[in-house]
Amino acid sequence: MSIVRYTLRRALTSVPVLIGATALTFGLVHLAPGDPIDVLVGFDHVDPATRASLRAEYNLDRPLWQQYLLWVRDVATLEFGESPITGRDVGPTVAGRLPHTIALGVSAWLLSLAIGIPAGIVAAVDDGGPADEVSRIGALVGIATPNFWLGLVLLFVFGVQLGWVRVTPPDAPLASLEMAWFMVLPTITLATALAAVVTRLMRSSMRRELEREYVRGARARGLRERTVLLKHALRNSLTAVVTVAGLQIALLLDGAVVVEQVFSWPGMGQLLVESISRRDFPVVQAVVLLIAVATIVANLLVDLAYAVIDPRIRHDR
Amino acid sequence: MTDREPTTRRGRIRIEGFDEHATATNTDHVQSNRSDLDAVSDRRDELDRRTTVDRLPTGGRSTRGGRNLDSGVGNKTGLEASWGRFRSNRTALFGLAIVAALSVLALFARPLEFSAMGYTLTVQPFSLAPYDPSELYVGPSNAGPSLAHPFGTDWAGRDLFSRVLVGGRYSLSIGALAVTLALCIGIPLGAIAGYFGGWIDETIMRLVDTLYAFPFLVLAIAIVAILGPGYWNLIVALVVTGWLTYARLLRGEVLSIVETDYVEASKALGTPHRTIIGRHVVPNAIGPVIVQATLNVGSVVLAAAALGFLGLGLEAGTAEWGTMLARGRSSLLQGHWHVTVFPGMAIFLFVLAINLVGDGVTDALDPRRETGRRDR
Q1: ipTM, 2 decimals?
Q2: Which of A80, A198, B132, B262 has the greatest number of beta carbons closer than 10 A?
Q3: How close, in Å, is residue A244 to chain B by CA atoms?
Q4: A93-316 architecture in CATH?
Q5: What residues have CB less than 8 Å from B243, skipping those under 6 apart?
Q6: pLDDT one-digit tens code per residue, A2-51
Q7: Which stretches make up the ABC transmembrane type-1 domain (chain A) (predicted)?
Q8: Which residue among B310, B332, B375 sits closest to A160, beta carbon to beta carbon?
Q9: How far apart are the first and last CA of chain A?
Q10: Confidence of residue A315 (pLDDT cuts 50, 70, 90)
Q11: B53 in contact with A at a CB cutoff of 8 Å?
């Protein structure tokens, strides 16, 4: 199957998922107990006139499927309307938080790879030895540590006790030195669990590659062990890390929601939690939808990247 | 060259030196040995040779099955062998001991009583916890650890030691209940999807794919946002997000089992579909699902705690480990480290122990699956 055909076929499978995800997000307001208007205004008392205008604005007087289509049309043009709670436009509110979450997520992702890949290689080479055992225990501890608790402890030690970092984000632009310095702790917190997962994954795929014939062949040709490991085995085992990029993105987004809360980081996760406690459903909808679409697109890209790296996958499905 | 000997023999293959009897005994020997420690090392090797790739969740259809027909579940000797492997795994036993200890502590932390129609039935009269976990001002507020209050007290003067002990009840029961209920949904749906195929399969799997588009915790948060906080709402959120993995995994396994001769034979005999699924298909396909479920208990407990921390889990003030940390940030900034450290340690210890047990179960049931890797 050519890569183009594979791309088309794979993209087509995302369509029903995308429809389902938008329907579910749209349904949030309607699934909540109570009149959608009450849900929208956070169960505040509003006069009948506002009620009627809200009803018209959100098209609540039309049948459900029309409401859904109208909502999708608005959302497709990034028109999320106005939050009835804060009175601000939902789109810009969400967009303003986006760079913070992306910055945090990308730096945590890079850190987790920077820790996980070397640690996995060392563990695979040292199969069953002390380094392997240490990385195994490290990964177990990393996965079992609640990220919010790790964040709080780091904040206490380095922020309160040692005073090396501020406990709240500085009032500075995102791309500044102060902000970068503040981001160190959230990044470590977010990267820990992911690094543990990457380490285990890297170890197993490296171990598998090292038992392959071509590695024996390379060794038999007298290549240095370094070359065998880093040029031959590593390249092939890295594909395994690519395939779980989708899982990594989900882990990062889940983690970001919690970690942003711990460090008062003004990202999407914090906005989500704030909006839920304010019962600001249009914002909740926008954030959840954005996260879902990002996950769907990311998974699509991961599958395509994988099909490019490993052409066998194209014939598989 | 003109020797006719080879041509007359053409078509008849004789195998020299083949002792049928000896081979038969040998094979028997090998098979009975599978339950021994040799089998463990055999399977360890297999474990690393396995491709991890075909188990990974991708956007489209995933997990093809068919490798686990001999995973040792479903027949007695297989189960015994699995138990033998688990028993010889010291770290897994250590984890099990911690889980058991925490369960006992949680169970006997406060008396368990059921009151109905004026009668009170005391199921469990012991009380290891020195104070009522919700009683205010049993000590000074925010006091550090002391003899009277080993873990100190929180902002409202409640005894943290008692709260941590009782808090185990929530985490333990949420973990067990949420995973069990998710299995009760995921197993039937996965089996039906894989067995019948066609539009039934399409419908169920598209639903799974759709829910998979949302990261686990984000979806759980959205559900709790709709339903509001509370014990059962939390469980609903964790079940709705949890069953997907099991359905997907089981469907993959079922797809290959449906092809086997014994299912074909049962169909030919006119056995009802329900019986075939229940008796033949599910028992043979369930091994990897059980493994995944054990590994998931830890992440479910972590997610429940995270929701509690965000103030979305149980009602504020409940003695649940995550909820106890919800006010942890402000207490911590005032320097009261003990309010955060002890509940967090409890979560960590419990999740670590559960994961050790999970890895042990993985090695015991399905040794070819890589440990430490989980889907969600």
Answers
A1: 0.86
A2: A198
A3: 7
A4: Orthogonal Bundle (1.10)
A5: B182, B183, B185, B186, B189
A6: 788 888 888 888 888 888 889 888 887 777 776 777 766 666 677 777 77
A7: 98-302
A8: B332
A9: 10
A10: low
A11: yes
